[in-house]
Amino acid sequence: PHHCRRSQTPSTNSGTVTITRGFRHWKPRFDPAMAGCLRGRGTHGSLHTMQPNPRISYTLVALQFAALGMLALTGPVLARTPVGLALELAALALGLWALWSMRRGLPNITPDVRPTATLVRAGPYRWIRHPMYTMLIGAGAALVLNQPTALRWAVWALLVGVLLVKIRYEERLLSAHFPDYPAYQQTSKRLIPFIY
Q: pTM above 0.85?
């Protein structure tokens, strides 16, 4: 963009010129606008817009469902201990609450942002930005606690890691799509209210 172009010839308006031992040195003046351009965002807009990468999106989704499927195949899908059952029901209730809050639009299993998407701040989204991922982590933990093994804990850890990567990738896309998303990030947490 035109506001990020700089003349090839230094001038006294854009910096200072000093002479040391017969050599002429030019020290550029700090320009906040140009600093923004170097970061990829200037004062009048961005140099580039974050675009979804289908390979990344579908790889993350595949790993997510592979981990969930492994948890389902290596133990009961309904927790049998009181603590595990309470955690699983709480996670499912959170998921249903999130779906109800998104009732005007269909949920998207990929991190890509639909062109017609709207930013939801109602329901659990008032406190956490990814309640559906909180549901998956909580429900998965309940299943592992019901029948804990080293393999199931490893699979649950993989699920958590994949979702954290997916969240970071998704939030970059959301920030590029919704101009007010950074402000929303300042008033909410990712997964756990008031904590993270």
A: no
Residue with tokens 């000093």: 18
d(C-alpha 53, C-alpha 55), whole Å: 6
CA distance 118 to 126: 14
Q: What is the pLDDT of residues 63-92, one digit of tens each?
A: 999 999 999 999 988 888 889 999 999 999
Contact by Cβ (8 Å): 166, 111: yes
Q: What are the tens digits of pLDDT across the range 83-124? A: 999 999 999 999 999 999 987 666 788 999 988 888 999 999
Contact 14, 54 (CB under 8 A): no
Q: What is the DSSP string of 79-115?
A: --SHHHHHHHHHHHHHHHHHHHHTTTS---SSSPPPT
Backbone Cα Rg of the chain: 24
Tokens 């969240």 locate to: 167
